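Fold this sequence, please.
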Amino acid sequence: MDRATDARIDGDSYRTPYALFDTVRRDVGRVHEKALGAARIEKAARLHDKLLTPIDADTYPLIGRPYRPDAVVQAVGDGIKHGLTLSPSDAEILVQATAGRPYSPK
């Protein structure tokens, strides 16, 4: 094991080189910033729908939950990596649910 590049457990301690720590730190930061951005968008839509739409729905129509392109992947999780397949109707329900729209069969 190369002590300069490999992470290891040393007794009760986890030791990692700074380069690996920095990579993980940046990855977690990106995930966190993405989550904050998604939360800002969703909060703005909910505030709009709860505060403005009831006052004047013609001027401030319902926005609903904004669709995120990765919402389906997040809902399914790692299932796709492990061979999960969805029937066409299940896929449609999942897309509708992640878009915040009620499912209406065709």
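The beta strands are 8-10, 13-15. The mean pLDDT is 81.
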